[in-house]
Design goal:
147 residues, alpha+beta, 2,3-Dihydroxybiphenyl 1,2-Dioxygenase, domain 1, 3 helices
């Protein structure tokens, strides 16, 4: 099986979602962080232990993470050696690209998997050291699915 490194939920109240997962199953969280890409400002948090990690995003209306539409499982994240190649392959397999962070200097894409109602995120593995340093400094290196 191909290893994914996180599962992301879009939520209308990030602090409540964090509290619920902490209380119910003991998830430990990093701090909520503000971020922006293109015209959208959003909040995000990752669990501190993994892989796989939990990611929560609270995003504005019209953004790729529009939390005004309600809570949902949004995407499953995979490390890849080539965002371009992975994106091309998924598109050819009938999973269209819905969003690319590449034009904004972020090497990842989202692809819709209709049968699951979620997207697959293809994140360039070159970002992994920064991810680990930021969210889990003692975390283990994770393989790219296409390695």
């Amino acid at each position: 099986m191909t290893t994914f490194y996180h599962i992301c939920f879009v939520v209308p109240d990030i602090k409540q979602a964090m509290a619920d997962l902490s209380r119910s199953v003991g998830v430990e969280w990093g701090e909520v962080r503000d971020d922006a890409i293109g015209p959208w400002e959003y909040q995000m948090a990752f669990s501190q232990t993994g892989s796989p990690y939990f990611e929560l995003i609270q995003g504005p209306a019209g953004s790729p993470w529009d939390s005004t539409l309600g809570a949902r499982c949004d995407h499953i994240g995979f490390w890849t050696r080539s965002v371009e190649e992975s994106s091309r392959r998924l598109t050819e397999q009938g999973m269209p690209q819905e969003f690319s962070g590449c034009p904004f200097g972020r090497p990842y894409t989202y692809h819709r998997v209709e049968s699951l109602g979620v997207r697959l995120e293809m994140m360039d593995v070159s970002r992994q050291p920064m991810f680990l340093a930021s969210w889990n400094p003692n975390g283990q290196v994770m393989p790219a699915f296409d390695a």
